[in-house]
Design brief:
With 338 residues, the chain is α+β, with helices and mostly antiparallel strands. It has a domain of 127 residues: ATPase, nucleotide binding domain (Nucleotidyltransferase, domain 5), CATH 3.30.420.40. 46% of the residues lie in helices and 20% in strands. The longest helix has 29 residues. This is ISLre2 family transposase. It comes from Candidatus Kentrum sp. FM.
Length: 338
């Protein structure tokens, strides 16, 4: 099938090149030439990826391994379903994907019939890295644009110029899916696996921030207004930084500092922090230092985290941030000596 696609593309491209060159010789528009050639290449790439994806999803060895994996999840293969996926070049292609559903519980009690939602999954696509029917390349590119651009609207415009058509709702959904990936995965991909911690001090700085999240107001724009209004409520992200210091208190440059944050509550923040720590060889460390302000949510959860991981008590130190400590001491002095 791949050879047939390549031969067909070669014949079509040969004829198309003649048309493109004829148009270019008349208009001398190189941007039009670039666009026309890129469109042909993108279409060929989509056809080739579609063929390879269909081949993998129907491969007997792949299906056998997939069924074993599904069995561990309590699922079984129901059927092959046609599903449309979006590739990194913005092309949408249809493939036949193995669809798995939860195994029925054996019970004598009659149960009310459930609807189809939430009962199955395209495990083959998930194993290959597809999230929300979007390819790994598309997910990465879309999320990068959402982070780099000042708004989802601008990000969608930039993506459209590259041939990737996404509306604001779809882009927001992809970002949401990326943000809710397995926390353990976030902890692993940030590390090389060869970090040398022996004899060093691991410093963990925890703090809360303030950020405004702009959301468009629902409903139609009033006639006397030029723009649609929006809400900009303040929210508090939970942030932490992890870095190494030597016996002199100097930052170890060979260890890349780790930064992460979450818009969840304090429990979500410490759950994320725990995934990072469990992917480090903590037994090599001389000591662990937690640094933060006077927020009670920090120190209460630090104690719980140390119990979960099993840090020896003589290696854990808790340090109050100097600026906040000085501020609180000044308040005490003012109260005692007005």
């Amino acid at each position: 099938m791949q050879e047939e696609i390549i031969r067909s593309f070669g014949k079509r491209l040969k004829a198309r090149i003649e048309e493109i060159m004829a148009e270019f010789s008349q208009r001398m528009d190189f941007s039009g030439l670039e666009k026309a050639i890129n469109e042909e290449i993108v279409e060929f790439s989509a056809q080739l990826q579609q063929a390879l994806l269909c081949f993998v999803l129907s491969d007997k060895m792949f299906l056998s391994a997939l069924k074993t994996y599904a069995g561990k999840l309590g699922m079984h293969l129901k059927e092959f379903r046609a599903v449309t996926v979006t590739l990194s070049n913005g092309q949408r292609v249809q493939v036949m994907s193995p669809y798995f559903v939860k195994a029925k519980a054996h019970s004598k009690r009659k149960r009310r019939k459930r609807g189809p939602n939430g009962t199955g999954a395209h495990l083959g696509l998930q194993v290959l890295g597809f999230i929300g029917h979007a390819s790994p390349g598309l997910l990465s590119y879309a999320v990068q644009m959402a982070l780099l651009c000042p708004s989802y609207e601008v990000a969608c415009t930039v993506l459209a110029e590259r041939g990737v058509t996404l509306n604001i709702k779809s882009l927001r959904r992809l970002c949401w899916l990326a943000g809710h990936l397995d926390n353990d995965l976030r902890g692993r991909i940030a590390l090389t696996g060869h970090e040398n911690l022996r004899g060093y001090t691991l410093v963990i700085s925890i703090d809360g921030g303030r950020i405004r999240e702009r959301k468009r107001k629902r409903g139609r724009r009033a006639k006397h207004l030029k723009r649609q209004g929006y809400h900009a409520d303040w929210r508090e992200p939970k942030l932490f930084t992890i870095y190494l210091t030597n016996v002199k208190g100097e930052i170890v440059k060979e260890f890349t500092p780790l930064h992460d944050a979450t818009m969840g509550d304090h429990e979500a923040a410490f759950a994320l922090l725990e995934t990072y720590l469990r992917n480090l060889e903590l037994e090599q460390l001389d000591r662990v230092v937690f640094c933060g302000d006077g927020g009670s949510w920090i120190w209460n959860d630090v104690k719980k985290l140390c119990n979960h991981i099993g840090f020896p008590e003589n290696t854990v130190y808790q340090v109050l941030d100097y600026t906040h400590a000085k501020q609180n001491l000044n308040q005490i002095v003012d109260m005692l000596a007005p």
